[in-house]
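WARN retry 2 of 3 for item q-0093 after timeout on previous attempt; input resubmitted unchanged.
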Amino acid sequence: MTRFGQKLTGLNYELRKSKIEILQVNLGKFCNLACVHCHVEAGPTKLEENMSRETAEAIVGLLDRWPIRALDLTGGAPELNPNFRTLVQSARDRGIHVMDRCNLTVLFEPGQEDLAQFLARNQVEIIASLPCYLKENVDKQRGQGTFDDSIRALILLNQLGYGKEGSGLVLNLVYNPIGPHLPPDQAELEKDYKERLNADFGIVFNQLYTITNMPITRYAKYLKALGQYDEYVRLLETHFNPATLSGLMCRNTLSVSWDGKFYDCDFNQALGLEIKDLENTEIMTGDHCFGCTAGSGSSCGGAIT
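OK item q-0093 returned
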């Protein structure tokens, strides 16, 4: 039994699916960035592991059969997959809310000149990565020049109405810690983000989500290279918070990989923990689950408690 499993046993707690409300679809690992913390190890060279038209069509079929309320599109940079816009429009035609996990810089990639307008036209909620409001920190984590392009993208989205009261166009930002530590208080950090981005650039947005970096795949290699892996894993385990369990994203979300396989969450997908039986509601867990249950908790919608 894993250490996380022992925690659940000690609490006499079974982690099971509730009603599936969100279908989170990973369109592939191709991305114009190669961020240090990326748990799917996406990057510009990942051209093969990307969703085919046939798999995208099968997902549209799921939208007809399953009563989900939201389609959550992620990657890589999901927008760079040729099936991205078809999935968006298919979901919107069915009255399903769509979320796009956007790295912002993708708005300026060749062929994406009208992407921002497309997202606005389809009322897609944008969940955008911006790990800090300081240029040095963002470029350190995501690559040189990323901060400037991200700010340009946010200004463009604001001009289209994103983040502005009454527009119906939701713009949420995502904070990931730069180093091996837990995120700070989400509400306090959101206040800081709003003050700094508005004062420095006139940028507005709806909410900030704080998400804990998961010590798996690329980020695990990064931490081990710095000699910080064991310390970070201990940090997550010693800050386990049972109050987060009821709000974990794996309870109401089903994750689908670029090749059409099913998982309880995007992290399980990165580790290959495939669901073999969709009728079984027991969630597959591992010690990486301490990443979602430490401190205030971490989900695709930010802090849990």
